[in-house]
TrEMBL record:
Domain of life: Bacteria
Domain ABC transporter: 608-937
InterPro entries with a match to the protein in the record: AAA+_ATPase, ABC_transporter-like_ATP-bd, ABC_transporter-like_CS, ATP_grasp_subdomain_1, P-loop_NTPase, UvrA, UvrA_DNA-bd, UvrA_inter
Gene Ontology CC entries for this record: cytoplasm; excinuclease repair complex
Record's protein name: UvrABC system protein A
Family of this protein: Belongs to the ABC transporter superfamily. UvrA family.
Species of origin: Algoriella xinjiangensis
Keyword Repressor in annotation: no
Length: 941
């Protein structure tokens, strides 16, 4: 075994052709090749899977039964394997409580910093809070009240209504004689009680003294101890001469008003702890409320017609309908009156409820009875349903009639009022968490200036740790993020780079890191910093294996492995390996693109579109600065810009959601905007992303495109099938009848091995064909239904040439470069790029109206130069039908092919959100304001 290499022998996972490969240790190694060639099969499904399996095998058999076994990858042997950590493109935790701050652990250090080195301010006066020791309290009292008559009091009730009879009884039993009630000292009398409808201040008299030399410190300490005990840590001193009071506390306290805080702890600043969380939103920073626009969509219809969908969703709506009818009777308004003509008072009562009690006639089991009902209003009624997770209608009501708003109590900061009155350098922790990471680093540098020398000593190590972690995040191009950014809103690329920064910060050595396209979502400007970060990881003593297509990353690697020569069954081989300099001289498809023998050709002229435009005005979601966007229709429009500039907010979260709601009544609301003009030129919107085409192994290209239904109908209409009376369900592997019941149509059987991983073996009954013998006897042109599913797309094109409906779809799959996949290939085994092309082919095969707008977000993710070339040819076909395609992209090979480019910037986060340049690629390249233009200029030469 060679210690300088990780050696893989006989790798056969998925489409790998029994390959042997040596990966040099402690180097930056890039695996590249066509989409579907076997790169991920080698890196993740073989090397990482084996590393995970070996790790889990070190656990006891007892522990392994809870972890679940990991299947042994199909490989003969792997030698020299280090502990493996995979950093994939998967998005992070979908929990709404998970943020960039929590997953990087920077927020944990920030909580510690505020708990130990912040200054508290009063929520009443905004003055600095004070906390005293007992000795300080005695010294202050002697200094301020020397020679004066004072009363030592305990605050019991502060500005609350009630008769408080029980308080007087309790303290009388304890031996206390007097209380100060609303500023007046009174004896406690039997049966004493106050006006329950007025607010009161009540203090307990603990001691009265004239402060002179005869009053010892011991007497004062004893009285103050008693006062603190009765007053929950607070005591008051009353000056008889001026009738003024002052508060003292061992905890943090406002000397003017007596408001006190407990001494802060880290969980005081945690939105996941009851101690720190905002009581209104429970630490989520947002609330779900009723969306009136969704409840009353058509103002020309009556209120009841508008609420018809709501009544159908509610299992029992007769009570609420009767209550609403009674409100109409109260205002003498016909229930059929159009909503827009209803008096505002009636609408207010419907939404917010009535103060008076209603008499409602209800009929149960033929018995009519009048009930007195308090109507709480639709707002409260629906809010209660949305909040009640045990109510089966909760999710449906929330999706159909709810919307999320920023919590009005904490203004999205997630914490309670007290926690937000602790400050460092004039900022509370909520404000610090809102800063973009670059600004946060500057704040960390400046924070010690505002601290006392004591606080500086305490904060030094904490600030150093936060600064280091922030540096790693900035190095991977995430300077535009903020700590309060919810992790569920992060893209796969952002989530991956956060994990990468965390791993660099962990300073582990002798580890094999495997990364899946870390350059995704990253502008060329930030690419150099990312490559430097990977080199840092290598230089501290780790091996870094990267699956990547980025030109700069390949050329900066220490070693390159090129997998190919084609994709699917025609791939799975190592076509070249070695240093990048030598690769440029080789004859592989990758090297031809790297040394410019092959290139994605720039069009000789740009399309002018159909003359119509889609005009979005006043987009202001997230960081967008009141953007006005014009999309020329019938063209390829590329939206570019640095990471975090606002591209996804503008296109995915604003424009797409407006169009989706308009054409399909989608539930997700768009980000704020003023208006959208030009909808009459479109008939639908389609978003084509790289998400899987199905969630289960039973989904495949044939089922997704819909041709499997046609294939089953074809087999059903064969003479033999008709004689036997077979219906289309007979030829489905998902229902009983035609499928093999031993494996239930899966083709494989799972054998449980107790403490060893489960083994998947070919079903011995159907030999992996999924169907029973009788079904397989029905043949078309000599092929059974199972044989058809095993066909590649290329084979299917010839086989179904005479059947137009099926042929159209398989031909389109072939045209988008997927001729190598099989019709029955499990959707879970398709790469993101392959899944996206299946979707594009499905759309292309449908009848075109020429009025469709397609939206693609970074479609070149996971695609080789050649794949990008094929993809762009497909996209051009879509536009030739008269459709419009909008692509969000950093890849210069795509940007240079655009008819129209919209560049957003100038930077990320709060420094972005503006359109800095728009026009043809040539115009962008010559615009000095565009960061993208600087890189595009070199591509257009």
């Amino acid at each position: 075994m060679n210690k300088d290499f990780i050696e893989i022998y006989g790798a056969r996972e998925h489409n790998l052709k029994n390959i042997d490969v040596k990966i040099p240790r402690n180097e930056l190694v890039v695996i590249t090749g066509l989409s579907g060639s076997g790169k991920s099969s080698l890196a993740f499904d073989t090397i990482y899977a084996e590393g995970q399996r070996r790790y889990i095998e070190t656990f006891s058999s007892y522990a392994r039964q809870f972890l679940g076994g990991l299947e042994r990858p199909d490989v003969d042997k792997i030698d020299g394997l280090s502990p493996v950590i995979a950093i994939e493109q998967k998005t992070t935790n979908k929990n709404p409580r998970s943020t960039v701050g929590t997953i990087t652990e920077i927020y944990d250090f920030l909580r510690l910093l505020f708990a130990r080195a912040s200054t508290a301010y009063s929520i009443e006066t905004n003055e600095k809070m004070v906390a005293y020791t007992d000795d300080q309290i005695i010294e202050l009292i002697r200094t301020q009240y020397e020679g004066k008559k004072i009363a030592i009091l305990s605050p019991i009730v502060r500005s609350r209504k009630g008769h408080y009879r029980e308080i007087f009884v309790t303290y009388s039993k304890k031996g206390f004689l007097q209380m100060r009630i609303d500023g007046e000292l009174q004896d406690i009398a039997p049966g004493m009680m106050l006006d329950r409808y007025k607010t009161h201040d009540i203090e307990l008299l603990v001691d009265k003294v004239i402060l002179n030399d005869k009053i010892t410190d011991q007497r004062l300490r004893s009285s103050i101890d008693q006062a603190m005990h009765q007053g929950n840590g607070i005591t008051m001193i009353l000056d008889y001469e001026t009738n003024e009071t002052r508060f003292f506390s061992r905890s943090l306290m406002c000397a003017a008003t007596g408001v006190s805080y407990a001494l802060p702890e880290p969980n005081t600043f945690s939105f996941n702890s009851p101690k720190g969380a905002c009581p209104t939103c429970t630490g989520l920073g947002e609330l779900k409320v009723v969306n009136n626009d969704k409840l009353f969509q058509d103002k020309n219809k009556s209120l009841f017609d508008n609420l018809e969908e709501l009544f159908e969703t509610l299992k029992s709506s007769s009570r609420i309908e009767k209550q609403l009818e009674t409100i109409f009777v109260k205002y003498s308004v016909d229930v059929k009156t159009p909503f827009k003509k209803l008096p505002q008072e009636l609408i207010d009562d419907v939404m917010n409820g009535l103060k008076e009690t209603l008499n409602v006639d209800l009929k149960f089991a033929s018995v009519k009875k009048t009930y007195k009902i308090d109507f709480e209003g639709l707002n409260e009624f629906l809010s209660e349903i949305m909040e009640d997770k045990n109510n089966p209608s909760s999710t449906t009501i929330g999706k159909k009639f709810g919307k999320k708003i920023v919590c009005p109590t904490c203004e999205g900061k997630r914490l309670n009022k007290e926690s937000l009155f602790f400050r460092i350098d004039n900022k509370n922790i909520g404000e610090v968490a809102e800063l973009d990471l670059k600004s946060l680093q500057k704040w960390i540098e400046d924070a010690p200036i505002s601290m006392t020398s004591n606080q500086q000593i305490i904060a030094h190590e904490i600030l150093k740790e936060i600064y280091t972690r922030l540096s790693f995040l900035l190095d991977v191009g995430l300077d535009y993020l903020s700590l309060n950014r919810s992790s569920k809103t992060l893209s796969g690329g952002e989530a991956q780079r956060i994990r990468l920064a965390t791993q660099i910060g962990s300073q582990l050595v002798n580890v094999l890191y495997i990364l899946d396209e870390p350059s995704i979502g990253l502008h060329q400007r930030d690419n150099v910093r990312l490559i430097d970060s990977l080199k840092k990881l290598r230089d501290i003593g780790n091996s870094v294996l990267v699956v990547e297509h980025d030109r700069d990353m390949i050329l900066e690697a220490d070693y390159v492995i090129d997998v190919g020569p084609k994709a699917g069954k025609n791939g799975g081989q190592i076509v070249w390996e070695g240093v990048p300099e030598m690769m440029l001289k080789s004859d592989t498809l990758t090297s031809k693109y790297l040394n410019n023998q092959l290139a994605i050709e720039i069009p000789t002229e740009r399309r002018k579109g159909n003359g119509n435009v889609l005009k979005l005005t006043g987009a202001s979601g997230n960081n967008l600065k009141n953007v006005n966007l014009t999309i020329p229709l019938g063209e390829l429009v590329v939206v570019s810009g640095v990471s975090g500039s606002g591209k996804s907010t503008l296109i995915n979260e604003t424009l797409y959601r407006i169009l989706n709601q308009h054409f399909f009544r989608a539930e997700k609301d768009p980000m704020p905007y003023k208006k959208l003009e030009g909808l009459e030129h479109l008939d639908k919107v389609i978003e084509v992303d790289q998400s899987p085409i199905g969630r289960t192994p039973r989904s495949n290209p044939a089922t997704y495109t819909g041709i499997f239904s046609d294939i089953r109908s074809l087999f059903t209409n064969l003479p033999e099938a008709k004689i036997r009376g077979y219906k289309p369900g007979r030829f489905s592997f998902n229902v009983k009848g035609g499928r093999c019941e031993t494996c239930q149509g899966g083709g494989l059987r799972v054998i449980e091995m107790n403490f060893l991983p489960d083994i998947h073996v070919e079903c011995e009954t159907c030999n992996g064909k999924r169907f029973n013998r009788e079904t397989l006897e029905i043949r078309f042109k000599g092929k059974s239904i199972s044989d058809v599913l095993e066909m590649t797309v290329n084979e299917a094109v010839e086989f179904f040439e005479a059947i137009p409906k099926i042929y159209r779809y398989v031909k389109m799959l072939q045209d988008v470069g997927l001729g190598y996949i099989t019709l029955g290939q499990q959707s879970t085994t398709l790469s993101g790029g392959e899944a996206q092309r299946v979707k594009l082919a499905t759309e292309l095969a449908k009848k075109q109206t020429g009025k469709t707008i397609y939206i693609l977000d970074e479609p070149t993710t996971g695609l080789h130069f050649e794949d990008v070339n094929v993809l762009m040819k497909v996209i051009n076909k879509i536009i030739e039908f008269g459709n419009t395609v909008i692509i969000i992209e950093h890849n210069l090979d795509v940007i240079k092919l655009a008819d129209y480019v919209i560049d957003i910037g100038p930077d990320g986060g709060n420094k972005g959100g503006k359109i800095v340049a728009e026009g043809t690629p040539e115009e962008i390249a010559n615009n000095p304001k565009s960061v993208t233009g600087k890189f595009l200029k070199a591509e257009l030469k």
